[in-house]
């Protein structure tokens, strides 16, 4: 442990050559930006920076022959570690308000009740029908493409199967006593 005289000498050396002023001017804004981005206040920044500065001065007093190549980087690193410890101890968390405003969620991301009902009826019709109707209506494949990708003999078979799937879907909807207007918005 260093003595008070060693620390006074280290502070005196820093103050004589205006190094402490340079450190403040260069490093404090970096520490403030780092802590501010993680939900810290200006008071938190001052506390952390001053603690880091004291640790830096103690390190210099402890071993004056050891040269730190970048004072700013060293103090910023200490500040980051101190902030992480303090935020874990105090339960600080990053506010999500700012981040949520930057995330764009499409209007149709959450399925509506009508969409869920329609999807339910499509599943009742069967996976094969669901694949066929999806290929035709959403992916807009031609009958020829659908025949080759879904394993049908020819285009006519695809057309007949599509008709059967639609009929099965219509009958299921009728059985459940729903009208087509229930699905329109």
Verbal overview:
With 185 residues, the protein is mainly alpha-helical. It is built from 9 helices and no strands. The chain starts with a helix and ends in a 10-residue tail after the last helix.
C-alpha termini separation: 75 Å
H/E element sequence: HHHHHHHHH
Oligomer: single chain
The level of helicity is over 70%
Cα-atom radius of gyration: 34 Å
Number of strands: 0
Uncertain runs:
none
Global morphology: rod-shaped
| Beta content | under 5%
**Structural class by SSE content:** mainly alpha
Q: What profile does the largest beta sheet have? A: none
Overall pLDDT confidence: 76
Number of helices: 9
Quick overview:
With 185 residues, the protein is an all-alpha fold.
């Amino acid at each position: 442990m260093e003595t008070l005289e060693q620390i006074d000498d280290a502070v005196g050396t820093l103050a004589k050559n205006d190094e402490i002023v340079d450190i403040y001017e260069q490093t404090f804004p970096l520490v403030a930006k780092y802590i501010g981005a993680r939900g810290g206040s200006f008071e938190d920044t001052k506390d952390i920076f001053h603690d880091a500065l004291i640790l830096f001065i103690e390190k210099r007093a402890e071993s004056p022959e050891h040269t730190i190549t970048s004072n700013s980087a060293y103090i910023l690193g200490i500040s980051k570690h101190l902030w992480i410890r303090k935020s874990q101890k105090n339960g600080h968390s990053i506010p999500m308000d700012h981040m949520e405003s930057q995330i764009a969620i499409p209007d149709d991301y959450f399925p509506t009740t009508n969409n869920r009902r329609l999807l339910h009826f499509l599943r009742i019709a069967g996976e094969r029908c669901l694949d066929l109707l999806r290929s035709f209506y959403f992916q807009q494949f031609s009958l020829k493409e659908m025949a080759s990708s879904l394993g049908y003999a020819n285009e006519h078979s695809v057309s007949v199967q599509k008709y059967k799937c639609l009929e099965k879907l219509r009958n299921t909807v009728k059985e459940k006593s729903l009208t087509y207007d229930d699905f329109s918005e």
